[in-house]
Amino acid sequence: MRWANLLVLCPVASYQLAALPFAALFHHLSASRRLSPSARYVSLLAGGCLLATTGAGGYAALLFVPAAASVLVLLLVSPARVHSWAFSLQMSWQTLCHLGLRSQGPDPQDTRSALVLSAVMLLTQKVTSLSLDVHEGTVTLQPGQGVLQRALPLCSYLLFFPALLGGPLCSFRRFRARIECPLASYRPLGAAARRCLCALALQALRAGLQGHLATAQGVRSVWAQALLFKLAYYSQWMLDEALLEAAGLGPEEGQGDLSGSDLWALETSNRVSVFARTWNKSTSRWLRRLVFERCRAQPLLATFAFSAWWHGLQPGQLFGFLCWAVMVEADYRIHPFLRARAASRGAKLLYYGATWLCTQLIISYILVAVETESFSELRRLWTSCSSILPLSYSLALLLLPTRKGKQN
Predict the structure, then answer these.
(1) 341 and 360, same structural domain?
(2) Is 270 a catalytic residue?
(3) Catalytically annotated residue among 98, 212, 280, 335
(4) Where does the chain cross the membrane (predicted)?
């Protein structure tokens, strides 16, 4: 194993690591009151613009244009219509970015398009979350102030560098409270260092397993690929949260994307639905608020379909997320049926072990499908023996009674 490779986990991670000392410096200056609130907003905004320009070059314009347009919409459109305007403009722009950059063809040496797409997707989360807050009246944009005074916090929130390329969604209310009243007693470096060490340990584990799992065949091959994908995601989420912690903008307890308890819950869960709610928790909460709670017909299917749209609508993503929706719906029917028949202790242990194994294999199948970038690879996955279990789960939708009520 090349240990030097662990210092650069991926293009996004390398920029996150480079930004860590600047995030710690920002928190130190803010907590010691050496920066005024306006200077804090400007510092975060300038850092975001510099990070975007450094990482994406000319592609950074694809991020700055929708950010500026969103600020204008938030300031000029009435609260009753602001969310529909912001949502339509941002998702239209993001879709055009996905289609335009994909048409250029993949270039492994050029990471700029991947970086800017990641930033645009996170911008969509912030824009739609803030527009919903304004629409629902939980956030007011201080109409008595001047235009520049109102625009500065918005621009800073949409482009602040600790959450530009990754990290859990931070609400505008929490962001504004932490900038205007930073916690002097808060010591973020310890939490940030622990998360960095966890990220490094997970990436080391991934590098160590990569060679051993390369020879897996059949169902074990799909499980091995998914395990490597999960470790990469876990390490990246840990690093994302470390950067936010270093800046003093870390998520509240239980509001981040990944903690030790979340990691345990993900890997020991015997429910596909529980895995879906725990995986990338801030995005799950955002999707629930944006789509699930506002959709009257087929909210579960609509939520996963929108997730596929938000991720880019590539063939593997479309198939993977729609498959995930079917698996969650089947999960809601299968478990009550099986629990009612697991009366003895031995039957309960068998029920948990069998459903845990099924959950692991189904999630592995979905992750590999989502990460598949070509029709030929997706067709090989469809026709493999790994499809037997998802097809068996799908039969539950025909054989078991329909669930009542609206699930989370």
Answers:
(1) yes
(2) no
(3) 280
(4) 6-29, 349-369, 381-400
